[in-house]
Specification:
Number of domains: 1
CATH architecture: 3-Layer(aba) Sandwich
Largest sheet: 9 strands, antiparallel
Low-confidence stretches: 123-156, 158-169
Distance between the termini: 45 Å
Number of helices: 4
Number of strands: 9
Order of helices and strands: EEHHHEEEHEEEE
CATH topology: Aminopeptidase
CATH superfamily: Gcn5-related N-acetyltransferase (GNAT)
Structural class: alpha+beta
CATH class: Alpha Beta
Radius of gyration: 15 Å
Helix content: 25-40%
Length: 169
């Protein structure tokens, strides 16, 4: 059963289910969407199913990962937003089906993804259009930050704001 993680207006950040495989496979199979992701190659339905299973496992184990985005809790997949642990730190990613590019709906999904993660980790967020920073509550360590202004796709969407540890000044 789908669970709401966060929502803004009618754009829901939610858990994944088997009904999301086709929509996610459509997203991963689109060359124009994939040109800005990893090596730029498309992925097939089996890969989409395996990635969704990994997202579900990460959510169950750590409480966060990439989440599905839909227009209503019981509606079909329109994209994803959320976090993944990478070799350089925590990566925030979001992608939407092509018909939602340039729409405020993708911005609401992006915002919901950021908004869901910070309470889960105990970090507070000071968000700016081109720079994302997260700092622990007073007395906590380490300080995490992300600089998102450098990488944007052809639609002006941020590609990969990466969260990295850095010492306090």
């Amino acid at each position: 059963m789908r669970q709401n993680v966060n929502h803004l207006y009618n754009v829901y950040l939610r858990t994944w289910d088997q009904d999301d495989i086709e929509g996610y496979a459509e997203l991963l199979g689109d060359p124009q969407t994939m040109q800005y992701i990893s090596a730029g190659t498309t992925r097939n339905r089996d890969t989409a199913a395996a990635e969704i299973a990994r997202f579900q496992q990460e959510i169950a184990q750590q409480g966060w990962s990439r989440w599905a985005v839909s227009l209503g809790l019981d509606s079909p997949f329109i994209g994803y937003a959320g976090f993944a642990e990478k070799e350089y730190g925590i990566n925030f990613g979001n992608r939407f089906l092509k018909k939602y590019w340039g729409s405020p709906l993708s911005l609401h999904g992006y915002s919901s993804g950021l908004g869901a993660w910070f309470p889960e980790t105990g970090l507070r967020s000071d968000l700016h259009p081109d720079q994302h920073q997260a700092s622990p509550r007073p007395g906590d360590e380490p300080r995490l930050s992300a600089f998102a202004g450098n990488q944007r796709d052809c639609h002006g969407n941020t590609l990969r704001p990466a969260f990295e540890s850095r010492p306090d000044p």
